Amino acid sequence: MRVLTALTYYRPYYSGLTIYAERLARALVGRGHQVSVLTSRYDRSLPISEERDGVHIFRSPVWVNVSKGVLMPTMFYSAWVNIKKADIVHLHLPQLDAAYIAVISRILNKPVVLTYHCDLLLPAGFINSIANQISHLANRISMRYARQVVVNSLDYAESSAFLRHYLPKIRAIPPPVEVVTPTPADEQELRLKARLEPGQRIIGMVARLAAEKGVEYLLEAMPLVLQKYPAARVLYVGQYQNVMGEEVYINKLRPMLEALGDRWTFLGILPPGELAAFYKLCDVTVLPSTNSTESFGIVQVESMSCGTPVIASDMPGVRQPVKMTGMGRVVPPANAQALAEAISAVLAQPEQYQGDAEAVLKRFSPQQIAEQYEQLFKVILVE
After folding, report:
1. pLDDT on residue 127
2. Do residues 311 and 287 lie in contact, with contact meaning Cβ atoms separated by under 8 Å?
3. Same structural domain for residues 220 and 338?
4. What's the number of domains the chain is made of?
5. Are 359 and 374 contained in the same domain?
6. Which of 138, 155, 227, 271 is the most buried (most CB within 10 A)?
7. Could you tell me which of 32, 5, 26 has the C-alpha nearest to residue 369?
8. pTM of the shown model
């Protein structure tokens, strides 16, 4: 089967969406399929085309950035050429280019499957308002021509003002998750980066430093946690410098970060082995996201598969990993007091939040998820 995947950003860009797409693409290749990715050349140092892990990547040059989106004049031509060669087209939304890619696919009689990751909610502002409207229009056109729409959970779909209109087309497939086994060298390198000291209680967070992640609520919760656990620390993994579109938000956080001093440490993006070592090192990880741009939170499952409980916001989709496994607690979003109390409760009685880490990893493995997509693609191709 020849699968053409289209999305705005692909690796080495780092986000939950790109990680999802990369893991699925690799797993489909491992099952004997030919996978191509059509994406942006958001960084001019990246090659126009290359092959990574058996996946063929075609990047269209970026003419201009519009908020977190990009305009790519040559993408239309690249889409036409590559869609003609494909058996099925797989779009990841939100994506500004999805509409005309779906239309081209219809013209060329190629079936379209959408994976709808989340609603797009950009900050206030004239440019962002226009980008939001264009994105919503692109979503509606794409949905019209899609044969099937995949979401992370029905909980999210049923709560989405946009998705609830398309429920007959929707199928839930959870995101693919993989965690490597850390080596002693990985563990040692992580400890050196984190400058660990005996007796510290580690609270972890993995995310881009972006407004929808609710980082300020963890910052506000930490003084309350430190009253009970003076040796507690936050280790933050993920991009925290030069995050596209988040300059104002990061400046807002600076005074709170400075007030915490060495109780908060940024580790940046970690290689897979060190990331696994990080999860195992943490006493608890948190995902205090605040809006519907977060629809699940792959990092929760990564943490649970390493045996580490999670505290997540009680929002559609985001609450599902904790509810499915029992490995953690959910708290009201944007509530620093509730977050602090939940962190303290897990630190006090971690044994209450243990689960079957091996079963979690198996349930969400890329191979399992790729098999579900494969069956979906096959059914559509014979209809």
Report:
1. 57
2. yes
3. yes
4. 2
5. no
6. 138
7. 26
8. 0.86
